[in-house]
Structures are given as structure tokens and as C-alpha cells.
């Protein structure tokens, strides 16, 4: 099992454990052909790890507002040359990829943070979910 698959399973397991209010939702996976067709149509390259995530869930909401991920989309609230792929922490933070797929950046109230890979974002989410689970124990 790959790194993203392992993290997906860990996140899904933590969400199931914390799902007292059904605050998490994981949509059906995308097929690789669907992702390739989308990339070709939009002229946007999706990073490999994010493609792996989309092949687990086309769209998801993780524990309410902890995180949401979906197909890249344009947004007036992010710089040109980027597509939004998610919302983080429910406070306006946007996770984005550059159109060439080489940068993964969060934009949060004028601040910009770059991530080396999508797995780093998932590690932060796992950490938050684990803290939430400990608080519920």
C-alpha cells in the first residue's frame, strides 16, 4: 500500500471513530482516466500524490471543518496561476496547487506556506484528528 493510501486509511479510521455527528464525508473515488481527461481539458497538472488521493475520494469533508478536498477549481481569493484543491481548518485557509503541478501552497489571510508534498498536509490532519480522539477518550 502506498503512502497516500495508508494516510487515507488512517484518516478514514479516525473519522469513523470520531463520527458521533457524521461530520465526515468521503465521496466515491475517481478513475485515473477521469483525472487525465480533467487535466487535459483544464490544462492543469495535478501532483501525483493528490491524484492518488482523488482515486480514494473525489470529494471529502473531514470532521466538519478540519479539511475538505476536491477537484481543483479556480477561486477569486487566490493568486492567478493556482487552483484551489481544499479548505483547511475552517478559517479561510485555502490549499492550492500551481497550474503546472509543481507547487502545493496554502493561502491564509495574506500568509503563504508551501508544502513539499500532499502527504505533509495529511500528516497535519492526522495529528489534529489524533488530538481530537484523545480528547474524546
Q: Roughly how much helix do the residues carry, as a percent range?
A: 25-40%
Strand content: 25-35%
CATH topology: SMI1/KNR4-like
By CATH reckoning, the class would read Alpha Beta
Give the neighbour order of strands across the main sheet.
Answer: 1-2-3-4-5-6-7
Structural class: alpha+beta
Low-confidence stretches: none
> Under the CATH scheme, which architecture would be assigned?
3-Layer(aba) Sandwich
Largest β sheet strand count, sense and barrel closure? 7 strands, antiparallel
Cα radius of gyration in angstroms: 15 Å
N- and C-termini, Cα separation: 29 Å
Whole-number tally of structural domains: 1
Quote the average pLDDT.
92
Q: How many beta strands in the DSSP annotation?
A: 7
SS summary, helix count: 4
Overall, the morphology is globular
**For the record, what is the CATH homologous superfamily label?**
SMI1/KNR4-like
How do the SSEs run, as a string of H and E? HEHHEEEEEEH
Provide an overview of this structure:
There is one protein chain. This protein has 137 residues and is an alpha+beta fold. The chain has one domain (3-136): SMI1/KNR4-like, CATH 3.40.1580. It is built from four helices and seven strands; from the N terminus they run αβααββββββα. The protein has a seven-stranded antiparallel sheet with strand order 1-2-3-4-5-6-7, covered by helices on one side. Helix 1 (3-17) packs parallel to helix 4 (118-136). It starts with a helix and ends with a helix.
Amino acid at each position: 500500500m502506498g503512502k497516500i493510501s495508508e494516510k487515507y486509511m488512517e484518516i478514514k479510521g479516525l473519522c469513523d471513530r470520531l463520527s458521533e455527528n457524521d461530520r465526515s464525508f468521503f465521496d466515491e473515488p475517481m478513475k485515473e482516466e477521469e483525472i487525465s481527461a480533467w487535466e487535459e481539458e483544464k490544462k492543469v497538472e495535478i501532483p501525483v500524490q493528490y491524484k492518488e488521493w482523488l482515486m480514494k475520494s473525489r470529494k471529502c469533508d473531514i470532521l466538519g471543518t478540519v479539511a475538505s478536498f476536491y477537484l481543483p477549481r479556480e477561486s477569486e481569493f487566490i493568486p492567478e496561476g493556482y487552483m484551489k484543491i481544499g479548505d483547511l481548518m475552517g478559517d479561510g485557509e485555502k490549499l492550492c496547487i500551481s497550474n503546472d503541478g509543481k507547487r502545493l501552497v496554502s493561502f491564509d489571510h495574506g500568509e503563504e506556506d508551501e508544502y513539499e508534498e500532499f502527504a505533509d498536509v495529511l500528516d497535519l490532519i492526522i495529528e489534529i484528528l489524533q488530538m481530537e480522539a484523545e480528547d474524546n477518550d
